[in-house]
Amino acid sequence: MITARAAASFEPVGRSVATARSFVRDTLQGWGFGDIVDDAVVLTSELVTNAVVHAGTSADVLCLRSDEGVRIEVADRYPEREIPLQAAAINMGSPDREGGRGLQLCAALAGRWGVEYTPTHKQVWFQLDLPERPVGTRTAGPSLPADLLPLADGRVRVAVVQIDRSGCISAWSEDAEELFGYAAEQVVGKPLTDLAAWPHTPGTSTGIAEALQLSRWEGSYGIRGADGRVTPVYASHLRVRDTAGEPSTVCLLVRDHERAVLQTPLRLPASDTGAGPEGPTADAFEVFIGSPAPDDLDGLLQRTVERARDMLDGDSAFLLLATDDETELEVRASTGLPSARQRFARVPVEAGPGRYGSARMPAVHEDLTVVPGAVPLLGGTGMRSVVTVPLKVEGRLTGSLGVAAEAPGRYSNEEALRLQFAADRIALAVESARLGELERLRRGSLSFLVEASDLLAGTLDRDQTLALMAQMTVPTLATWCAVYTIADQASEPYLSYVLHEDEERIDGLKALLAKIAPPDPVPTPGARVWSAPAEAAHQAALRTSMRSLGLGEQPSVSSGIGTTLATASAVGGETVVLPLVARNRVIGMLTLGKPSDEHFRQEILELAEDLSRRAALALDNARLYSERMAISQSLQRSLLPPELPLVDGVEVEVIYRAAGEGNEVGGDFYDLFPIRDGAYGFAIGDVCGTGPEAAAVTGLARHALRLLAREGYGGPAVLERLNSAILDEGARSRFLTLLYGELWPQEDGSAVLKVVCAGHPLPLRLRQDGTVEPAAEPQPLLGVMEDLELYEQTVTLDPGDVLLCVTDGVTERREGTRMLGDDGLADVLTACTGLTAGAVAARIMRAVERFASDAPSDDMAILAMRVPGLQKD
C-alpha cells in the first residue's frame, strides 16, 4: 500500500544529476528513512545520468513510500535504447567504465528492480527494503561517556498535574509541591493558566489553554511559584479519559534544563545520527524541511508543502501567503491539488464566523461535506478532512499551511499540534524569503517602468505607441493583450491592436475579440475581471467540437476545430481590463489575459496599472501630435502652388526641400502661373528664417504675386506693392528676397523673360557652348524700406539655353569652413550642357547633397527652365 509519494522532473542538462540526488535525499530523510538514503542516492544518480547525459532526454523521478520500503522510478524518453536481459549472457560492461553501470548497481544494491517500456518512455525502477529494527523500540541513542550525558539535579523531580475538562487542576503531586511551593489544597480547583507566567511557549502561537485541549503536546512555559519566582518548565501533556468517559489532561513537568527527561528526541537525518553532542545542534526548521532552505521563495514553499503532506500522510497540502493588509491569502504552493488552477488564487482570511472560519487560528475539519465552503481552496477537489495552521511572525499573520486528505476524520488536535510546531519554525524563514522576493519584484518593477517610460516617450506615432504597449505587456505581464481605443466620447471602443506570445494564435484571438462586444469604458482605476472572452471562446470551441462529431452544422473550414480549441485555451484563464485614462478622459482600455485556469497576481496587476497610466498619456500625446501634424501639413500644403502648368516651348522643373522635421513648407518658395494668353509669371523667393512663421510670409507673397500679376501690373509694380504688404504685417513682417519674372515663349523657339532680382541670388544662364553668366542685376530686398525703386531686365533664352534660379540654401551649403557659393554653383551648371531641365535640377541637387555629409539645415528651392527649340519634322 502506497502511503506517500513525491515526484520531480529534471531537464537534460548536467546539473540535473546533482539536483536529482538532492531531491531523493531530502525526500527519504523527510520520511525518516535515513538508513537507505545512501543506496537510493547512488542508484538515482546513475539512472538520471543515463537519461539526461547519455540519452540526452529529460528524466522523471518518482519516489513511493510503502510499509515494506521505498520504490524509486526513473523514466526517460528514449525507449529504443537496448536493455540487457537477465537470462541472456550479455556482457554488462566493466564496472570501471564511465557509462552503463546503472543496471549493475541496481542488481547489486536493490532488493528488487526492473525495466518497463511504453511507446514513449523507458522506466527503470528499484525497491529498497527497510532494515529490521528491534521490536518495541521507539527510539534509541548510542552509548555515551558519563561526561557527555545531559545535566540534571541530584534528584530529578517530575511534577504530575492532572487537569479536568474545564482546565482546572484536579490532582497535584508531591514533586509538584517541591518544585513550585504550593500545597495541593492551595491549587486544586484553580485553572492552570492562573499559575502560568507567560501565555504560550516562546516562539510559538499555541497557548497553554489551547494546548490542554490537544491529544498530545510538548513544549516550554513558566510556572510562577509560591515565592513569586518563575520556574521555566518543560511539559509533556497527554489527553486521557477515565472509566466514566470524562476527559482530562495529564501534565508531566520538569525543570526546563532537565527537558531531556521528557522531550521526544528529534528525528535527525541519517547523516547526522552519528554526530557527537559537541557537534552542531540540529535546527528544527532544517529537520522539518530535510535540508537547508532553498534560495528562492517558490522552492522553499514547495518543499514545505511536500514535507507537511508527508509528515501527516496527507493526500494534498497547500501554503498561502497573506497580502500586505492581511485581508486575503494568496495560494503560493500546493501539492496534490490542480496547481495550475489554484496558483495565485485568493481566499479571504475570515471565511466565516468563529475560530474555525479564520486563518488566524489552527483549525481541524473532520468532514468538509458537513461544512461546505469552510475551506474555499478545496472546493471541488474531493478532499474531505483538513487541518490548517497559521504562520505568524511577531504576532502578525503571514500565511497559512494546510494538509488535506480524501478520507474523513483523518486529523485531530494532535496533528494540528505537529503541523503548528512545523509552521512556527518555518514562518520566519518564509517571511524573510517573501520580503526578499518582494524587494526584488519592486526593483524589477521600477526598472520595468523606467524602461517603459523611455520607450513610450521616444515616439509620437500612434501605431508605434500601440505596438509598444502590447510588446511591453506580453509576455512580461500577461500571455496576451488587446488594446481598445476610443476616438471621442460619442464613439464606441475600437479594437486597435492584439498580441499573443504565440504568433500563430494572434489571428484567432483577433477574430474572437472582434465578434464580442468590447468592455465598457469605465473610468474607475484598477483592474476589473472581464469574463466575455473566456465564455465566447468556450462556446465557440463547444460548437466546433459538436460539428466535428456530426452533431451540428458542418464546419466551413476543416482546420477550424484546431484554431478554435487553441483560441479557447489561449483565453480560458483570467482576463482583466484596465482603463486608459488621460487628461480626465477615457481614451481606451488595455485588456490582459492568461491561458486556461491561470490568475493574475496582485503585484502584476499593480504593475500593469502603473503601465496603463503611462501608456494612456503616451497614446494621448501621440493622438494630439497626429492631429496637430495633420492640421499643420494641411495648412502647409495650402501654401504650396498647385501642379505646375505646361508651358509650350519651355521645359520647367522644380525641386523643393523644406528644412525641419515634419515641415512641408518653409521660408523658401516658388511659383509658376499663367498671367494671360501666352504669358507666364514665375517666382522664387526666400523669407528670412524657417518654420511656420516664415511659411506665413511665404503664403502672403505667393498669393499677392498671382493677384497683382493678373491685374496687369508689371514686375517692378508687383514687387513694390508686395513690399508694402509685408511692411503692413508689423512685428510679424520678415525680410524677403525675391526673383520675379514674366515669360513669353516665342514662335522661333526662343523665350523672352523680364526679371526683377530683389536681393535674391542672381539667376544663372547656361548657353549651349557651356558658358555660364548672371541673367540679372542685384536690387534691394523686400520688407526693409518703404520706398523702393525697382526695374526689370529683359533676357532672351535661345534654343538650348537654361535659366537656373536657386535660393541661398543651395549656394550657402557648407562643410566646415568650405561653402559651395556662386562660383561652385556655376561650375556644376557648366557641366549640364545638353541636359533637360529635369536633369539639370537633379544634378544641382545631387551636387548640393554630396557637398557635405550633414543633412541640409536650410530650406532649398531649385527652378530650372530650358528652351529646347523648335522640333524639326
From TrEMBL:
Keyword presence, Flavoprotein: no
UniProt cross-references to InterPro entries, sorted A to Z: Bact_Sigma-Reg, GAF, GAF-like_dom_sf, HATPase_C_sf, HATPase_dom, PAS, PAS-like_dom_sf, PAS_fold
Key words, A-Z: Hydrolase
Domain of life: Bacteria
CDD domains to which the protein is assigned, alphabetical: HATPase_RsbW-like, PAS
Domain PAS residue range list: 160-190
Name of the protein in its database record: SpoIIE family protein phosphatase
Lineage: Bacteria, Bacillati, Actinomycetota, Actinomycetes, Kitasatosporales
